[in-house]
Amino acid sequence: MSTSASMSSSVTAPPPVPVDRAVSTGDAPERATVRRQISHDIHHELSTIMLLASMLSSAPDIGPDSRERARQILGETRWLDQLHRAYEDSVAEPDDAALRAAEPIRLDAFTAEVVAAMQLSTFTRISFVPHEVWAHVDGLAFWRVLRNLIGNAVRAAGADGDVEVRVEAVDGWAVAQVDDDGPGFGAVPPGMASLGLGIVQDLAAAWGGELEIRRGVLGGCCVQLRLPSAPPPAERRPGGDP
Fold first, then answer.
1. Same domain, residue pair 116 and 206
2. At which of 96, 129, 156 does a domain end?
3. What is the percent of the chain where pLDDT is above 90?
4. d(CA 219, CA 225)
5. Which residue has the higher pLDDT, 126 or 28?
6. 225 pLDDT exceeds 90?
């Protein structure tokens, strides 16, 4: 849950100009310079982490479990780098922030990658039931959706809880469903979960989809994301060219 505090001063000063506004309006070019420098350093550090994780994943003196964790760190850092670049794009071109191109994505394979990474970062038991299904989405945005849905469920279930993730096709919809055995939606104070669901709802609407929240089969919350399903690309259809 976020908190805020107010401070008073005997000297009245104009409110600071947010960095994003400074970049878009040119009110404070020095702020834009600082933002570019910070972004450069963030990309540099992310690249360093990716290099170290890549080296560790292929090191001959570690076991298979450590090797898998190193690979997951590498994958997560790559997503973080993409997310930061998307943020930079939204600052530079705020009117085009929601216009990222969608592409046909196999949601079950995509979800498997996210689930595998989150299974290594929590004590909560996360199970995954996959069925092949495709939809037109932006890959980075769908990654954000999954991280928010599964992350909310993990927090609600707790370290000793269970979360079930399902991806399947139902009546022309590509469905991603997350159940947990926590206390249920609305039973905990609002906070990051509410923000995460707001992100998911906005993206679902942009893709022509729907978001439903109800009591789940595990006794806690069930969040179901429905997107218009799509056929796989021609080259990946059975009998097509590889």
1. yes
2. 96
3. 36
4. 19
5. 126
6. yes
